[in-house]
Every structure is written in C-alpha cells, then in structure tokens.
Amino acid sequence: MAEAAEFCARLGVTHYAVETREMDVAGYRENGPRRCYFCKSTLLDTARRVAAEHGFDEVATGTNASDIAAGFRPGIRAAAERGARTPLADLGLDKAAVRAVARAWDLRTADKPAAACLSSRIAYGVSITPARLARVERAEAAARRLLAAHHVHNVRVRDLGATARLEVDPHLVDAARHDAALHAAIRAAGFDGAEVAVEPFRSGSMNELLADPERWRRA
C-alpha cells in the first residue's frame, strides 16, 4: 500500500485506497483452483464502483502478454467478464517489454521483483485465513532480510499446510538449505515445528498441483 501511494505520488497520479473484502467470499477462503476468479471479481467490482463514483468510464488492469500466455489464469477471465481493459496485453507487450519501457521512462519499478498476492503462496485446498497470510508475509520478510547480503531477488515462502517451502534464486539454494538461522526465522514467523524445504524459485509453482487434484486436496 505504501509503495503504491509513493509510486503514484511520484507520477502525479491520484491514488485511491479503498477497502475490499475478499475474505468474505467463500470461494476465495476455500482456496480451490478458481480462487483467483473470486478474488479478481471482488477487486474489479470494487474498482468499477470507484471509477463510476469519480466519473471514469473505463477500468484497466496491468495484464500483459506473458500473463495471457501463462495458461490457467481464472482471474483474467473474471476481469474480462467485467469489461476491464488490458492495454499492455492488447499491444503484445510481455513482461520483458514492460520492464524495458519502465527503464526508458526511468521508473523505479523497472527491476522490481514479481510480487504475486500472498494467497498464491498457500497450497490449493488449504483454507485461506488472515493468520496464514500474515505468517507467510512475516516469513518472507525475515527470509529476504537474512538473505540480503547474498543479493537475493526472488523470495517465496509456500504454505503447504503442515510444511513450508522456501523458494529463492537458484544461486542461493545451497546456502539457504544449510542456513539454520534462516530456517529458525521461518518457523518463528508462524511455521512452528514445520519442516522447511528449499527449492529454486519457480513462478506459479503452486499451479503444478492442479495436474493432480488428489495431491492438492491433501496438501
């Protein structure tokens, strides 16, 4: 929230901070494969309301060509059903092109690591709760802090229910596997007594569970 406000202020763009209530939606809390559909529906319904209140006719998202090509994206469907515009995707701009434009415009977000929502860290079939989201956030913050000296870029803590998985840049995997303080910090963030596996970062790795429905139900 703070980063969004600062970014808009630097651009001279008005920033509206509004409350959304995804946690009130059963389909979101239950965390099945269509979780993102329910989340994006809530966000776009709210955005359309705010747009109407301020006299705007259109709502746009930052969906790009890489997102479209990624395959299973129920959130994109929810946005399309609500008439959201996707200018980056329409122009065929993928993630690399978007970053290149950001560098040309000297935007500080040009090299910002991907930042998917915290619910994407929780395995399908494991209920989403404020406590689970909070422990993932604390664990990732601790991991990023402890790995800062190694010039870490990507950090994810995946909540698999009874266990946790830390995903980091490939060159840091070996060091992270043998870092007792790092594992202790993740457990202290809310994963008490949990086994912590370490693997290379893979964007969208939770979607791999969708190929085996029984696996994600057991996660």
TrEMBL record:
Q: Which residues form a coiled coil?
A: none
Source organism superkingdom: Bacteria
> InterPro entries per the record?
Ni-pincer_cofactor_biosynth, Rossmann-like_a/b/a_fold
Bilayer-crossing residues are none
Protein's name according to its UniProt entry: ExsB family transcriptional regulator
Top-level taxonomy: Bacteria, Bacillati, Actinomycetota, Actinomycetes, Micromonosporales
